[in-house]
Amino acid sequence: MTTKTRRRRKSVSPALPAIQHPPYIKRKVPVYDLLNEENLQKLEDQAEWILSEIGMEFRGDAVALALFKEAGATVTGEHVRFDKGHVRQLCATAPSQFEMVARNRGKSIMFGGDNVIFAPAYGSPFVSDLKGGRRYGTVKDFENFVKLTHMSPWLHHQSGTLCEPVDEAVNKRHLDMVYAHLRYGEKPFMGGVTAPERAVESIEMAEIVFGRAFMQTNCVIQGNINVNSPLVFDDVMSGALRVYAAANQGLVISPFILGGAMAPVTMGAALAQAHAEAMVGIALAQLVRPGCPVVYGNFLTTMDLKTGAPTFGTPESTLAAQAIGQLARRLNIPFRCGGHYTASKLCDAQAMQESADNMMAGLTAGANFIFQAAGWLEGGLTMGYEKFILDADHCGQLQRYLGGLNLDDNNLGGESFLEAGIGSNFLGTAHTLANFRTANHQADMPNNDSFEQWADDGRKTAEQRANERWQQLLREYEAPAIDPAVDEALLEYMAKKKAGRPDEWY
After folding, report:
1. DSSP assignment of 169-231, as one string?
2. What is the pLDDT at residue 2?
3. Is the pLDDT of residue 181 over 50?
4. Which residues contact residue 429 at a Cβ distance below 8 angstroms, ignoring those fewer than 6 apart?
5. How many CA atoms lie within 13 A of 123 on its CB side?
6. Which of 279, 284, 345, 434 has its Cα between 20 and 30 A from that of 254?
7. Any idea what DSSP says for residue 20?
8. Terminal CA-to-CA distance of the chain, rounded, Å?
9. Which residues of 395-422 are buried (b: 16+ CB within 10 A; e: fewer)?
């Protein structure tokens, strides 16, 4: 067979109408319950013991301490302890489901229940790609990842700090990030949390687009709040938490635990601590504003006890995700779990193994919000362009998996059997022609060519194909429409805030 003949076979079919993708996933496969009632009760009892006997600290936040004292907790200085069952009771006003309204209302999402949402990675100071290598992130990189998220049908939420734009001052970059989310995308997103005043400004920018009155009864922006594990909230995190809660905006509250460092080395102890920490953050949000929309977050993994490096995709972290999913469901609060985590520096076999194992753990654990679902490399230090593309493509496959099996008459294919008969094939049947586009998920990035076709096309690796893909997407990107007056108001707000303060680079 000649090269020309082989290439002729790759000609594409006539264009067909685009498949419409939903703004989020409706889970149709069951979750996995790892623990029985006895063991779940053990973890809950241990969490209650931690809260009553060890307690937590709220450092530098007199308002949070006063709220807990007024609610009946034992407050001594910055130390807070709770009677058994008290924190769980305070969490009871958190909604079991809530809507997050997008700038494009058709891309609004629902947290909780059987809904699943994918969002890309968050917080990396570095970015990487095949040509530029590993380098500090910039505002341009940040904008690129917003655009790539906007274009992906498999990512439902734009995350927050997609990468740190270190070419902008620390005290001003949150303005650029929120503007990029609002201007270059139209899906839900997160605002700044690195200081309470930056949380305020993030919300004020959202108000320019959505309106203050609308936001009093609708969630349009979230804050990602990390506990300073073990058992500490500093005034930056608790202060930002209170800002979002007071404005009735969303919160994702996540302990940040590496077993052996921020928690005891055994997973049972780490699980109990993580549960205690998450509940206290949720309780504070409810004390600020009962009914405030919150997500029970989880970042709990292992570490290499020889080097201190975080490890991902391990058996212990997989089991922990499944157990903590059960604890979250018992609180009846939407649950966030990790996504395509890896310690690898490259898009290699380690990256894919660890990432795939972590993602499946989150899905089987019943997570409603899969955070860090695209781009994560090097334990979260790097946001990779090629990794982003490969991860997002995998999210598409997982979305199909979560849709479950459809066994209606069409899927059982009786007409196709009758038409093809015995000993024939089914390629030309009317049933095949009617269903070929939707019968199987068509992933973009895997190469299923013959060896000869693949060789003729340059023997490209998955990473090389992903490199070409993200560059193509950015060339094809078209910004979503925005009211010019709203855009002008956002730019004026940013300019005023930036002009009113000196740059701070730490």
Report:
1. -TTTHHHHHHHHHHHH--S-EE---SSHHHHHHHHHHHHHHH-HHHHHHSB-EEEEEE--SSS
2. 44
3. yes
4. 415, 416, 419, 420
5. 13
6. 345
7. P
8. 63
9. bbebbbeeeeeeeeeeeebeebeeebee
CB 118 within 8 A of CB 377: no
Instruction: Please count the other Cβ atoms lying within 10 Å of the Cβ belonging to residue 115.
Output: 18
CA distance 221 to 216: 12
Asked whether residue 18 carries a pLDDT value surpassing 70, the answer given is no
Q: Which of 397, 324, 399, 314 is nearest to 367 (CA)?
A: 324
**pLDDT tens column, 395-446:** 999 999 999 999 999 999 999 999 999 999 999 999 999 999 899 999 999 9
249: left (phi over 0), alpha (psi -120 to 50) or beta: beta
Q: Residues with Cβ < 8 Å from 177, sequence gap 6 or more?
A: 142, 160, 161, 162, 165, 191, 192
Count Cβ atoms below 10 Å from residue 96 Cβ, excluding itself: 12
Q: Chain centroid to CA 123: how far?
A: 12
The angle formed by the CA atoms of residues 13, 15 and 16, to the nearest 5 degrees, is 110
CB contact at 8 A, 103 and 182: yes
The rounded distance, in Å, linking the Cα atoms of 343 and 55 is 32
- Structural contact between residues 107 and 188, judged by C-beta atoms closer than 8 angstroms: yes
Amino acid, res. 502: P
Strands 126-129 and 133-136, bridge-based pairing = antiparallel
Q: How far apart are CA 209 and CA 218, in angstroms?
A: 13
The class level of CATH for 90-402 reads alpha beta
Q: Which residue has the tokens 């490199």?
A: 467
Q: Which tokens in the block code for residue 224? A: 């990602």
3-class secondary-structure state, position 99: strand
Q: CA nearest 358: which of 184, 123, 197, 118?
A: 118
Burial string for 124-136 (b: 16+ CB within 10 Å, else e) reads bebbbbbeeeeee
Could you report the per-residue pLDDT of 51-65, keeping only the tens digit for each? 999 999 999 999 999
Tell me if 48 sits within 8 A of 84, measured CB to CB.
yes
Percentage with pLDDT > 90 across the chain:
94
Residues in the chain: 506
Q: Which residues pair with 57 in a beta bridge?
A: 79, 232
Structure-token pair, residue 15: 């264009």
Average confidence score pLDDT of the chain: 95
Cis-peptide, bond into residue 230, ω within 30° of zero: yes
